[in-house]
Design brief:
With 138 residues, the chain is an alpha+beta fold. It is built from 1 helix and 6 strands. It has one helix at 17-50, and strands at 53-64, 67-76, 82-89, 95-103, 109-117, 124-132. Strand 3 (82-89) and strand 4 form a beta hairpin.
């Protein structure tokens, strides 16, 4: 024997409970999604705007067994002083040279070629990061 479930006529008594629950879940999900995107955007903006000095390694060239020439472009706030750290690695991946380069010159953009002395022949050069001093000098 088969059981027949009585169903109400569609549209007569409003939405069924399942449809209301689905709609609430969609609204809650959308609100949480927008909140998460806002939080990620805020953290990204804070990270980027909080950096007083940023730099880009344009190119590097091994000029001898004991040195690497590194072309570095630095962008900084007016009056900001600080330094960037460069590192070179050997064939086995170990560090063979490191140099901290100070940028105290006035201006907001500095384009400079610096030499990193090495203990063995380098196979790469990289910019590990830049650090600003305790704020702009007045």
């Amino acid at each position: 024997m088969t059981t027949v479930r009585p169903q109400v006529p569609g549209g007569r008594y409003g939405r069924p409970a399942d449809e209301r629950a689905d709609r609430k879940l969609k609204i809650v999900g959308a609100v949480l999604g927008v909140g998460l995107l806002t939080l990620v955007g805020w953290f990204g903006y804070d990270y980027v705007s909080g950096q007083k000095i940023s730099a880009e390694l344009i190119k590097w060239d091994v000029t001898a067994d004991d040195r690497v020439e590194v072309h570095l472009e630095v962008r900084k706030g007016e009056g900001t002083e600080g330094y960037c750290t460069l590192r070179s690695r050997g064939r086995d991946g170990g560090e063979v040279g490191r140099r901290d380069v100070r940028f105290d010159a006035p201006g907001t953009r500095i384009d400079e070629v610096v030499t990193v002395r090495t203990t063995a022949r380098a196979t790469s050069a990289e910019l590990t990061g830049c650090t600003a001093d305790n704020g702009p000098k007045d």
